[in-house]
Amino acid sequence: MAAMNTPAPSTRPDQSPISRDQLAWLEQQADHLQVAAEHELRAAGASGLTELALIRALQSPRWQLIEPVTFSDPTALYPVHFLLFHALYRLQSELAQASETLVISPLRLCILTTGSGNTRALPAEEDPLRSFYLDISRYFLSGHDIRGMMERFLAGVTLAGSPEDVQEAAQVLGFDTLPGDFDTVKQRFRRRVMQAHPDRGGRTEDIQELNRAFSVLKRHFTRQ
Question: How many CB atoms lie within 10 A of CB 116?
């Protein structure tokens, strides 16, 4: 399986139609990612993986499907993120036919058997995020569009905030149960970000995961 070391361009200044070669390259990469992602998620069990953990697994020697990526650069991260989620939503459709559900949330990716303690519904065709990621042409976005989309994501605009997502977000910040107020969340978030700062031996990826968790909880308390 070839690594994503010569990716098709993620932007098309002239917005011309996707060429056959570009489409073939994207579909081939998505096929590889789908097979590898299913393997890794089944190995992880019901606890699942975060997106960053899955990316690292797909970068490992056993797969070598994704090159090193600068996680702090949205325009560099987006093509990897989009194609991976395109593959995941395709896999979700296939698993639904076998009475399995691929949970795709901001904080966890996992495969569950429908009817075995799984309270998640099967994928809904009207889900706007699902529709977005299944449209392969969305791989090609301008840098401006990518930055705007990532800002909205981190602000919690696109997060549904299901009970499962909210509980997982609380756990990422170190809470056993959801706090009763947002001020407690903010205090814990600041402390965890300081601990995870690269100057203190942390990683940018860890801070991004904390940001996602904070966004989910912010959206949750705003809606109350």
Answer: 9
DSSP H helices, 49-127, are 51-59, 74-97
49: which strand partners?
109
| pLDDT exceeds cutoff 50 at 2 | no
Tens-digit pLDDT profile for residues 47-70: 899 898 999 999 999 999 999 988
Q: What count of residues does the chain have? A: 224
pTM: 0.70
CA distance 102 to 41: 9
CATH class of 155-224: mainly alpha
Q: Is 137 in contact with 7 (CB distance < 8 Å)?
A: no
- Ramachandran sector of residue 156 (left: φ over 0; alpha: ψ -120 to 50; beta: rest): left
Q: How many Å apart are CA 11 and CA 74, to the nearest integer?
A: 13
Task: Give the span between the Cα atoms of 135 and 132, in whole angstroms.
Answer: 5
User: How is the chain split into domains, by residue range?
Assistant: 11-141, 155-224
